[in-house]
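Our platform keeps sequence and structure together, in a single record for each protein. Because each token names a local backbone shape, the row as a whole describes the fold. One such record is reproduced below, unchanged from the form in which we store it:
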Amino acid sequence: MALLLRGAPVANELSEAASVRAAALGSRGVTPTLAIVRVGERADDLAYERGALKRCERVGVSVRRLVFPEDVRQEVLLDALERTSADDSVHGCLVFRPLPDHLDEEAVCAAIDPAKDVDGVTEGSLYGVFAGREQGFPPCTARAVLALLDHYGYALEGARVAVVGRSLVIGRPVALMLLARNATVTLCHTRTVDLDAEIRRADIVVAAAGRPGVVGKGSLRTGQVVVDVGINWDDVSSSLVGDVDFGVAEGIVDAITPVPGGVGSVTTAVLALQVVEAAERSCR
């Protein structure tokens, strides 16, 4: 039976570190502050917002909520983001996506100051990940994957890692972050020829394709560590499932993250930490 790599201990460790650093900023008269920008009332956005508020309160990060109706005009949203970017008392900005179809998501992301982009949505942040520079921040979920592997003591240098999924939200940035740690990374996707074979070669598998069951019995072998980033709703079981066939994988691999209770629970802790880091940078 595989070892379950639960996210709660990782999130607690990150939160404790963020809390200490937030307190140090507070002694200098600086309160790390996050602006959450939400359009509409999507259930997943509301769930993430609740988790972020709870985590930020725990570590000493102040949160301002900017909530807009689903039919908000583009210019109204852009104006709010530009004012937030110009506000020195705000250190981080998080915009929930996807946005309604009538909004230009690319323009919205571009309106965020890269120095306050704590979820890696601007071109400046993505370039920072690509070049390995301290510019902006990586997507929270991508950083959460590495934090989880580090917490449980899995060495990345020299490890063979298969990343399944090529989105700018997780797949590509986490692949680049793993490369920066000297892992040997294969970036796969649902159109990879003989995907199962590519995944079987890996020591560590990061599943982030957004498709339930894309990693199954034919992909897995003994000795692997599997990080399942997928969050999908299964109508049959009426529950959340990952991209990995957990029931099969648990009996084959050495370690695996559960869904829910794995990477997702680390993400809000990374968000709070990156707001604290943004506040620290603003004081330099």
Summary: The first strand starts at residue 3 and ends at 4.
